[in-house]
Specification:
Blueprint (H helix, E strand, L loop, with lengths): L4 H21 L17 H14 L5 H13 L5
Helix pairs in contact: 2-3
């Protein structure tokens, strides 16, 4: 298992982060709810982020990860 642990752990971390965000936004008493589900928000930045992570690993893609987080926050997600 020594060849690709960074990419696998990155994918798992992103998946877990998205699941956490999904549960946070459906929590009763939450502030303003986003109009979209997190998986459907910001498709442009999501695509760029995901492609970068697959090709280069999470560490090399901080710029795209941050751009996606900024977009998600603008859509009303608490990330």
């Amino acid at each position: 298992m020594g060849g690709l642990p960074t990419q696998n752990s990155s994918a798992l971390a992103l998946s877990g982060m998205q699941q956490t965000q999904e549960s946070e936004k459906t929590t009763p008493g939450a502030e303003a709810k986003p109009k979209k589900r997190i998986c459907c928000a910001c498709p442009e930045t999501k695509k760029l982020r995901d492609e970068c992570i697959v090709e280069h690993g999470e560490e090399a893609c901080a710029k795209w990860i941050e751009a996606h987080l900024i977009c998600l926050r603008a859509e009303g997600f608490n990330v």
